[in-house]
Amino acid sequence: MQRRNVGMSGLTVSALGLGTMNWGQEVSEEAAREQLRLFTDAGGTLVETAARYGEGQAEAILGGFIGDTVARSELVLVAQGGTTRTGSRRLDGSRRGLLDSLDASLSLLGTDHVDIWLAPSPDSAVPLQETLSALEAAYVTGRARYVGVSGYAGWEFARAAATASFPLLVNDVEYSLVNRGAERDVLPAVEAFGAAVLAWGPLGRGVLTGKYRGRIPTESRGASDVWAPYVEPYLAGKPQRVTEALCTAARGLDLQPHELALRWLLHRPGVASAIVGARTPQQLKEILQTSASPVADPIAAVLDEVSA
């Protein structure tokens, strides 16, 4: 798998990252282990987790695999803190909340550091300087080799990066053919500060696989009461037209829709890695076969136009 530098840093990560949001919930521990094996065997390095995933279950499962299924040195661990692990999952961008969250994550992961640690979306109840002070503490003590944020608008990232006395390396945001909002201001902001985007939802929450065309499969997230609101915004209107155009182009290139969607995204300026998730090892295996080669200019232009 292709390795890429994150922004202007010396840190390299795999073009595709493995997300663990569903581990311990939709994905059993054994299936998660198989996913990690498939990912690392394919050359993947970046594994993303968060305190809120399963209220710590995902971190605990991943921690159980490190040193057993895969060596710690083979992974680039990305962790996100700043939310409570039980109850209402309240956002907490305070220094105490963030650093307590980091220490709990390190304990569950069974490591003394993560490679990239992210503060969550801005907490309106906490001054920016306080959130930054927690990131700085993690950075200077070595508990995080690099730090960044998640879900910051472009102006929010620029303000934070200009205020901080240390480098903010990453903004973790949703980005795909059916959600190009990051291009308005997030991508220009991260590039201006030598940072990069980690793109979550690169397959449009599943719709860019083409599986929702004309129907909602009974085994899919769209058929689940819990997950349906997450998928529904991309099932009709413009996202539906984008998906149809993608499927048509992919068929002409003898590719699967998800392959073309990922190849388009991986060559957008400022994107270091696309974080993919899967409910089954077989789904992940299909995704990992994606080539990182660029899309031909005429096809890219059509996709750009229909999804602009």
TrEMBL record:
Residues 16-296 form the NADP-dependent oxidoreductase domain. It comes from the Bacteria. It holds the Pfam family Aldo_ket_red. GO terms for cellular component: cytosol. InterPro entries: AKR_Detox_Biosynth (IPR050523), NAD(P)_OxRdtase_dom_sf (IPR036812), NADP_OxRdtase_dom (IPR023210). This is Aldo/keto reductase.
